[in-house]
Amino acid sequence: MTRGRFIVLEGGEGGGKSTQARRLRDHLEARGRRVLLTREPGGSPLAEAIRALVLGQWPEGVDATTELLLIFAARAAHLQATIRPALADGRDVICDRFVDASYAYQGAGRGVDPADIAALERLVLGDLQPDCVLLLDIAPEIGLKRIAERSGNNRFDAESLAFMQRVRAAYQARAAAAPARYRVIDAARDADTVAAELAAQVEALP
Questions:
Q1: Which pTM value belongs to this model?
Q2: Which secondary structure element, helix H or strand E, spans residue 9, and what is its range?
Q3: Would you say residue 148 lies in a domain?
Q4: Alpha-carbon distance 144 to 134, whole Å?
Q5: Rounded to the nearest 5 degrees, what angle is found at the Cα of 43, between the Cα atoms of 159 and 129?
Q6: Domain CATH number, residue 179
Q7: Backbone angles phi and psi of 80, in degrees to 5
Q8: Number of compact structural domains in the chain
Q9: From the CB of residue 107, how many other CB atoms can be counted at a distance below 10 Å?
Q10: How many contiguous H segments (helices) and E segments (strands) does the chain have?
Q11: Which residues neighbour 62 within 8 Å (Cβ) at sequence distance 6 or greater?
């Protein structure tokens, strides 16, 4: 059986990843693809339980190392229970965030050494990498304004403009370093235009 395609949507807060991930799934299913839509942190019962720990407000706070380890623990569970089986079954997997988010948020945002993140990446992912990363790029000023207007925000949504600027720069640097894998999408445009470009980019994949 042909392995499914592993497609990841990344980007800073307010870029519309979750909405666009659902629209991309619907687009592919309408064309006869079998698709699994999932997210990080989360994506399996155990990983979702860890997600609640990651996003929760704790009296002692959540330091950068604890946050990173929790996210990679959730990622390991997610891969074992959800992503790898779906890919092996020939389904396309669309994931709202993956390992790039750790380099952007815990690395650039919180100051964790990228070498430590890379060590966890090797341990948890092995040789698995996304076939395509769709980076929904948006100026942090616009993204923060968008999330201020919505409900259900988590503690990441409360980060400073400077934090989000570091996150965006890290995403852009990773995309520039591997242009064959990444597609940078201007997420400041209207949702229909962004959805059409995402669909076109995925349609061009093998």
A1: 0.94
A2: strand 6-10
A3: yes
A4: 20
A5: 85
A6: 3.40.50.300
A7: -70, -40
A8: 1
A9: 24
A10: 9, 5
A11: 54, 70, 155
Helix (H) or strand (E) holding 183: strand 182-186
**1 located within any domain:** no
DSSP reduced 3-state for 95: strand
Selection from 4, 3, 24 nearest residue 136 by Cα: 24
Residue in this structure with the two tokens 């919505």, named with its chain if needed: 150
Could you give the angle at which helices 191-203 and 17-30 cross, rounded to 10 degrees? Answer: 50
pLDDT (tens digit, 9 = 90+) per residue, 109-137? 999 999 999 999 999 999 999 999 999 99
Confirm whether 57 is domain-assigned.
Answer: yes
Q: Which residues pair with 36 in a beta bridge?
A: 93
The answer to whether the CB of 77 falls within 8 A of the CB of 40 is no
Query: How far does CA 96 lie from the centroid of its chain?
Result: 4
Q: Terminal CA-to-CA distance of the chain, rounded, Å?
A: 15
pLDDT tens for residues 41-87? Answer: 999 999 999 999 999 989 999 999 999 999 999 999 999 999 999 99
User: Encoding tokens for residue 42?
Assistant: 């989360």
Q: Which domain holds residue 139?
A: 6-203
Residue whose tokens read 């623990």:
73
